[in-house]
Amino acid sequence: MKSLLLGSALTLASAAGALAAPVTYTLDNTHTQIVFQYNHLGFSTGFGMFSGFDGTIQFDADEPANSSVEVAFPAASLLTGIDARTTHFLTEDFFGAEANDTVSFVSTAIEVTGEDTGLITGDLTINGITKEVVLDAKLNQLGEHPMEGKQWAGFDATATVLRSDFDMGMFAPYVSDEVEVTISIEAMQAE
Predict the structure, then answer these.
(1) Beta carbons of 160 and 178 less than 8 angstroms apart
(2) Which of 78, 102, 125, 137 could disulfide-link to 157, CB 3.0 to 4.6 Å?
C-alpha cells in the first residue's frame, strides 16, 4: 500500500511539474509577419515587411514571465513594393544584408502587465549590431487549431526602433529615425 501511495504521489508530482513547464511552440512562417513603417519627409508613410521566419516560443501559460522567444529571419526577405527601394534598403546604407544576412531577436525578460499582455525585453540584432528592444505584446489566442487539430498560439506585438541605433540612420531626420514595428505571430506546439 505504501509503495502504491508513493507511486501515486510521484506520478502526481511529475504531472504537476509537467504542467508547470513551458511548452515549446514553433513559428508558423506562413502566418507570421513583421511590418514596419516610417515617415518620409512629412509627406507620406513608407512600409516594409519581412518573411521567412524561423523561431521558437517557450510559453508557460501558468507563469508567463517564465516564457521566452527566439526568432530569426533573412534580411533579404524584405518587401517594400518598390524594387529599387528594396534593393537600396538591403545595401550597407541600411540593413547591410550582404555582410549581415540575418535579423534576430532573443528575449531576455518578460514582464506580465495584464491577463493577456506583457512587455518582452530582448536583444535585437540588425546590420550586425545588437541593441535592447522592448516589445509590447498581447496573447491573442491559445487553443486547438480548428484545421490542424493541434495546440496553437497567436500573439501580436509592437515596438519603436531607432534606425540610427543600428547604423541605418541615412537621411534622418528627414526620413524618420523612429520606425514603428508591428508583429503578428502564429506558432504551433512542437511535436
Answers:
(1) yes
(2) 137
